[in-house]
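Comment thread on ticket #2218

A.B. wrote:
> Attaching the input chain for the structure job we discussed in standup.
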Amino acid sequence: MAVINVRKARAGTDSAGHRWPADGAVIEVPVEHALTLTRIPDGGFSIVEVSSEELAAPVPAEMTEVAADKSETGKPPAKPRTAKTAEGRL
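C.D. wrote:
> Ran it. Output below, let me know if you need it in another format.
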């Protein structure tokens, strides 16, 4: 079975159980499955050419994304509610 290197923008797994351990990680995936993954709109998958040393190396810091001010849901945190008081009202 022929395989090809696939980069995933965000860490995670696909429906076939392939696992990308970090944002921007590259793993080997069967060619047919890789072509399916790259067709997913906004899926974050791309086919790349890397050496076997690069596959084993940790993901460089510049390849990871930092989501500032976002919760686990990917949405910005809710603003804290403040209690309304009668001060200033007539």
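A.B. wrote:
> Thanks. Noting for the ticket: The longest strand covers residues 3-8.
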